[in-house]
Every structure is written in structure tokens, then in C-alpha cells.
Amino acid sequence: MSDPELRLLRYFVTVAEERHFGRAAQRLHIAQPPLSQQIQKLERQLGTELIDRSRRPIELTDSGRALFDEARLALTHAERAFAAARRAATGQLGQLRIGALQAAVDGVLPYVMRAHRRRFPDVTLELSESSSTDQIAQLVSHRIDVGVLRGPVDEPSLTIQPLIDDPLAAVVWEDHPLAEQEQIEPGLLAHEPMVLWARAAAATTYGDVVELCRMYDIEPPVIDEVPRIQTILALVASGAGIALLPTSFINLSRNGVRFVPLQGRLPHRPLALAWRSTDQSPTVHAFLDVAAAAAPQYLEDLGRRYPQLSAATPRASRR
């Protein structure tokens, strides 16, 4: 015996509520004879009579009463399930796993996630911080759905879309002679003691600093290589040296330091969205659309909160 169809349960519940085949048929917008036949079909599937047709108005049998409440509950759950499926099909319901660099976590990503939650409150966002290399591996193995990383990305199965420019900025202590500059020409840093973000902790940023020094033919003295951003900022605040960090880290608002934009040509590795090219998930693409719309607003807010960035606010990219 197969499970009764939901349609048959709906017919039965309507008849049970009306206690009249004619009124039930009107509610269901079908003729009375086919409705009666469908109820008989349900009774045959269950192997028991559900309705006592000898009485007026009709009455439910013991089996009918036992089925009635459970059938209504089943129909309610089915409607919820169908509604959930429809909402998921438009990206309004589901779960999204996001991987992100620390620069994104401390910068644009909370802004994007907040905008997404306002628009899609029933989508659960799971966030994990990881390197670009790890995110690529996690995307390929389907452990995350969207990454926020830096290129280059040599993985043909992924689509990469720039989100915002996030250029290097000079980080100096608050009474450093360069602290009040609107922009700093990189050549002026040639003899400044420098604290580097260690290569093992941030290979892309380390590579960008090396590239910047090569572009401007400078060799600043390196006093330390540090794995943690907060330690770097503490050393800069103490006057031990300056640092070159992605602009996003200005959001950490460390007392005693000032981020000053750099002038001229800079290494260009924007923060970018990454996802599997074959992924047609509405939830994924809804998030990508929200991110593209929220990024320019984030940069506008960043410029208002930190006026020194207004003349060199990084650009946003749109999908």
C-alpha cells in the first residue's frame, strides 16, 4: 500500500470540516461525484471506511476521526515545506558558508553581512577566517560556498569578482613627522624602520610590501616580522617602527597610530569574491548581489569616519 497522496488528504479534510460533500466540492472547485470517488480511493488505500454516509449530516468513523487531526497537521507541515522550498529558490531561506581573509573580516565583510541579514533574515551565515589558499581549497571541496580573498587565483573551476580595492597604507605612530600628511610618496619610507606582517601569516600582504619596495627601489630596515595585526599596531604605536598594511585594518581603531594613504602606483590585489562557477544556488547569488551593492556604501562610510582616506578611498567593483 502506498502512502495516500496529499491531494486525497486535502479532499478528506475539507469533507470532514464541511460534513457535506456538496459544500466541500464547492470549496475545492470540483464536482461532487469526482470528490466522492477520491474519498473512496483514499478509503481503499487505507483499507477502512472514513465517513459514515448513512447519516445526515455525514459523520466521521472512528478511523476518520483518528485520521482527521493528523491529516490537518500533515497538510500544515506540507504547506510549510513547500513555502520553504519556494523561499529557498529565491535565496530567502537557507545556509551560506563564507570564508574570508582577516582584512575582509575587519573591513567590508561585516557591513555586507549586516546588509544581507536585513534583506534575508532567514538565511544563516557561517563565517570562518582563512587564507586565500585555504579558501580556494575549501571552495573546490565544497566546504565553503563563497570566499573573500586576494588573487591571483589559478583555479579554473572558480569565478573571481573584485569587490573593493584595499591598497596598502602607511601605518605610523600619531606624532610621527609623516602622520599629518594627506598622502605619502613611498620613496619617503626608504629609511623608516619597518615592522612587517610575517609571510607565514599573510603571504599576499607580505608579497605586496616586497613588490612595493621593488617598484620604488627602496630597502627600509626591517626591525621585526610579526604574525598578529594587533602586535604590529602596538609596536607602531610605541614608536618602534612603521608598517605597511591593507587599508581595511584602519577599522581596528588602534589608539596611537594613524593610517596614511600611499601616493602613486601600488600593487593591485583587491579583495575579491570567489565562488564555484557551476554553483547556481539562489542563496549564493543573492549574497553576491548584496555584497556588490553594499561595498560602495561601506567605502563611503569609511571615508566619512576616516577623513584622511577621503582623497584616496579604495574603489568598489560591481557584479
> What form results from the Cα inertia axes?
rod-shaped
Structural domains: how many:
3
Q: What is the tally of beta strands?
A: 12
End-to-end distance, in Å?
Answer: 52 Å
Strand content: 15-25%
Give me the number of helical elements: 10
CATH superfamily of the largest domain: Periplasmic binding protein-like II
Largest beta sheet, briefly? 5 strands, mixed
Helix and strand string, N-terminal first?
HHHEEHEHHEHEEEEHEHEEEH
Strand order within the widest beta sheet? 4-3-5-12-6
Radius of gyration: 31 Å
Give the fraction of residues assigned to helices.
40-55%
Overall description:
The protein has 319 residues and is α/β, with parallel strands linked by helices. The protein folds into 3 domains: 6-90, Arc Repressor Mutant, subunit A; 95-164 and 270-308, 3-Layer(aba) Sandwich (D-Maltodextrin-Binding Protein, domain 2); 168-261, D-Maltodextrin-Binding Protein, domain 2 (3-Layer(aba) Sandwich), CATH 3.40.190. The protein is 42% helix and 19% strand. It contains 10 helices and 12 strands. It has helices at residues 6-18, 21-28, 32-46, 62-89, 102-105, 108-119, 132-140, 203-215, 229-237, 282-305, and strands at residues 51-52, 59-60, 94-100, 123-129, 146-149, 158-164, 168-173, 194-197, 222-226, 242-246, 257-261, 271-276. A 5-stranded mixed beta sheet has the order 4-3-5-12-6, with helices on both faces. Strands 9-8-10-7-11 form a 5-stranded mixed beta sheet. It has a two-stranded antiparallel sheet with strand order 1-2. α1 (6-18) crosses α3 (32-46). 33% of the residues are buried. The mean pLDDT is 91.
